């Protein structure tokens, strides 16, 4: 579909989050890498892509900026990044899951830099959102804008 571009990134994985889980505990994203992630909601036997996001950016010198605050990296963005108001995802995602009767989230992450690549996560995120928009006619329901 629109995620084939991510196949080149070999540092990747996914994890599940249920409403009563501790996001910090179940999140297996790296604390020393930047990249992109997408979130599927599992509800009533159906799967829906609900969010595409990123962590990090390229600096002026061409090196990757990796989030250092809190846990660091993609993991910190997933756990402590704000969504649904000024609330960290470790709280807002479980709350939103309960509100929407979502059984679990399946979160896939991809580090966009390694010994072979150094791709800006914001650019990759924008491409993914644009491709999704072109195919589906709108953004994933938890996304607000394309940068």
Automatic annotation (TrEMBL):
Name of the protein described by the UniProt record: GIY-YIG domain-containing protein
Superkingdom of this protein's organism: Bacteria
Originating species: Flavobacterium silvisoli
